[in-house]
Amino acid sequence: MIIGSLLLLGLFKYPLWNIMLGAPQYPDPLGMNIYIDGIKGVQEFDLQNIDGLNHYIGMKTIPKPEEMWEFSVFPKVILGMVILGVVLGILGFFKKVSYHYFLGWLILMTVLGIMGMYDFNNWLMDYGNNLDPNAIIKVTNPDGSPMSYKPPLIGHKKLLNFDVNSLPHVGGYLMFAGMFLTLVAYWVGRKESLKKTTQ
Amino acid sequence: MKNILKTTAALVTVLITFTSCNNSGKSNGKSGALASNVAEKVYVAPGEYDEYYAFISGGYSGNLTVYGLPSGRMFKEIPVFSQFPTSGYGYSEETKPMLNTSHGFIPWGDSHHPDISQTNGEIDGRWIFINENNTPRIAKIDLTTFETTEILEIPNSAGNHSSSFVTENTEYVVAGTRFSVPVPQRDMPIKEYKGNFKGALSFISVEPEHGQMDLSFQILMPGFNYDLSHPGRGKSHGWFFFTTYNTEEANTLLEVNASQNDKDFIAAVNWKKAEEYIKQGKFTTMPANYAHNVYDENTHTATSTMKKEVRVLNPAELPGLVYFLPTPKSPHGCDVDPSGEYIVGNGKLSANLTVHSFTKMLDAIENKKFDGEAYGIPILKFEDVLAGSVEQPGLGPLHTEFDDKGNAYTTFFISSEVVKWKLGTWEVLDRKPTYYSVGHLTIPGGNSRKPSGKYMFAMNKITKDRYLPTGPELEHSAQLYDISGDKMELLLDFPTHGEPHYAAAIHADKIKSKSKKIYALADNKHKYVAKTDADTKVVRNGNEVHIYMTTIRSHFSPDNIEGIRVGDKVYFHVTNMEQDFDVPHGFAILGQNNSELLIMPGQTKSSVWEPKQVGVWPFYCTDFCSALHQEMQGYVRVSPANSDTPLKWSLGEDID
């Protein structure tokens, strides 16, 4: 339980998510790493170059950390969950709290995670659809509606000449591993208490 | 029915056997199948890279071209000694100082012998040096940017030909004079050449970290012609060897008068000794006047400084500094093998190829086995320094390079061939024709302790029928050979640009990962940089107007400018704000009297425009930078000389 929740600390060092944009002119794809406290380019000038290209289709520039409340709140939430998890783990180790609290932590984390994903997806929707009406290039769908440039939440999508791939990054995988470990902790705790009741 | 089937089957079997027999016969022969094997050896599939970079001198183009081996594809022409309108080199305000000399601005040069910097006797791929023959200069090209970053003029020199070869830790780049001249230059009768003219051998020190060149000292030699040179290496490190011709000191009809002596010399210069003499103060400081031009990567601007003196050593007064090794018949190339033991003198009118031994030379010096002297410089006895001769290898030997297996390869201009022979036994192992009249040849790492014995290419002086005809004037031809086996194998024929006099080649791994993609805009310290659109402005100072302009896909800022007057000197200072690989922007304005500018990401370049006619004149981006490249344009309104149109500029809105 302690290890599991400590793994969340990885999010402070490694990106949660990664979006790569490759095109014929970009054999080395441009990329952005999404951290809990901001977005950074994979290479030094990637964000600037993505913004440069996006101005043709009228997309807003990629937000700076101070432009989105999420980037100040997320680190606090994650830190809170780490502390809570560690405290629960220690108390659990000394049998002060029941293993049910572990499951409780996991459910809370999952709910927060889903809320985060939902929020992230909303931002992608806004970013991909809320375009400058004076954009240089306006592409419409066959039905006449403006084309969406929303990158996929997860997986691959073709956007004009770009192949966009969106996948969790190291921080994300550490978080999933941590959450899995808390599930294990819950199982171990449950098994031991079942053993006790049968004895 | 069964029979018919059987017969058919039998017939098919026979046919298959017959054809396959035929095939195997072919692949052992010299036709189809073999030709396709050769093609595979030079085929670099689309998107894949060549194994080697080859830097081939452009001769009278004044430049240096970059090729890939084994494909023979040309990647780039690097402007060095000549104005280059493609990029604006030598036309832009920043690069004009690169071509400054004591004779004023020189727009052209004759580039000759590129040589790559070395560490511990191996080529390291940091810089490449190249000499200008006509108005003596040495240039340094940075191999992270592939741009010329320094040019040093050589005083007291004329026909800077036995240059620009580097010592094994790039302590020096050496430049020797081909034509001897009065030193210092003065008004005197030409017929008084003999005994009065001098030949300067220049040792240019290279600062180890940044490569800054400085003319450390010159050795004032007798008035011979110093043709080519190479450094000692390994055991002979500390020495430098120069071939000479015209030891007759003729000043007219040299083709006859300079071909009379049975033997000319190879001059062996002990530069470690020269350093000692310099330290002891045994030099004279001569007044001089020569340009030192340095390009700064952060200001993107070159500056030219005139230097006023040079330290000179007189070999007649300084024992142990120079010795002469008699070498038959006007030797051209002066080549030192990878071990540093053998010094090959390619006597171009000699029937045999002469090879001297460094060990024997030291021994002869120690035992003072001298055969007289020339202008106070001891001459060693030919027999005492001779290691061996390659007997009757061909006609007109010019230049020798070495592989990693103890073999040497010599070009023969007159018999138009490359001959492979063995060091030590001096036997001829193979010969292959070249097309036609080969001058020089190159093996990657050829001037180093560690040559790579995979490829050799020959650069020819005569092309004739090798390619589709293009009128009387032709590019030269080069041939690439596989030298990994016992026999050389001709792989490829490819055209070269200008007249290559020599080339240097290096494994791509030593360079490609260090090649820069952009210049960091944050590091741009150009005097007239505009790093954001907010920095753009137009400033008038008398009749000088400075326009601080930016470019980014796909617009100029500003793109409407008014208030320019006929007679103004308008400086466009254009900064490319892109920080993306391979997104240059160009700049050209109607009636520009110099050249366009091609500006790399993060770079600033300036062009002067002196409008002569009233009107509204367009400017545009010359490089197809983006989908909206055709829209990347603007206007300058030019009013009469005495008008009072206010100086105004805009982007995205009208000038009110």
Task: Report a brief summary of the structure.
Chain A has five helices and five strands. Chain A has 199 residues and is α+β, with helices and mostly antiparallel strands. Classes of the chains: A alpha+beta (199), B mainly beta (656).
Describe the structure.
The complex is a heterodimer of chains A (199) and B (656). With 199 residues, chain A is α+β, with helices and mostly antiparallel strands. Chain A has one domain. Helix content of chain A is 49%, strand content 17%. Chain A has helices at residues 2-6, 46-54, 70-93, 100-129, 170-198; strands at 17-23, 26-35, 38-41, 155-159, 162-168. In chain A, strands 3-2-1-5-4 form a five-stranded antiparallel β-sheet. In chain A, strand 2 (26-35) and strand 3 (38-41) form a beta hairpin. In chain A, helix 3 (70-93) packs antiparallel against helix 4 (100-129). The model of chain A has no long low-confidence stretch (mean pLDDT 90). The radius of gyration of chain B is 29 Å and the shape is globular. Chain B has two domains: 52-514, Methylamine Dehydrogenase, Chain H (7 Propeller), CATH 2.130.10.10; 521-650, Cupredoxins -  blue copper proteins (Immunoglobulin-like). Chain B is built from six helices and 45 strands. Chain B is mainly beta and 656 residues long. The A-B interface holds A 28, 44-45, 48-49, 52, 56, 136-137 and B 518, 552-553, 578-581, 627-628.
